Amino acid sequence: MADDVRNVLEALSTIDEHWQPHRLTSINDYDVKVVKLQGEFVWHTHPDTDELFMVVSGQLTIQLRDRDVVLNPNDVFVVPRGVEHCPKATDEVHAILFEPKGTVNTGDAGGDMTSDLHEFD
Fold it and tell me: What CATH number has the domain spanning 8-104?
């Protein structure tokens, strides 16, 4: 995978389900994931890692307990480790996530929205 050129928009075009991250590539101990988001996710934390969101298209609100952070295309926001958050998108959002390999999308919350990491062929 390290020698392959990957196109973010092409990868996103193959994703059918929301909240199901797909590994685009990896760098060192981190995965670069693409995901489509719509609706409200679950409140959760990642106790051991920060989580970076970069919006490719649409508008993503990351709800924090003390404020909402609104991300538009090309905006980046890092949720610090241990901070409870809940992403939501009124309309479909395409995003890139950077997080350590093995990070579960629902963090400590678990539940029905927990996804196995999908791979591109």
Answer: 2.60.120.10
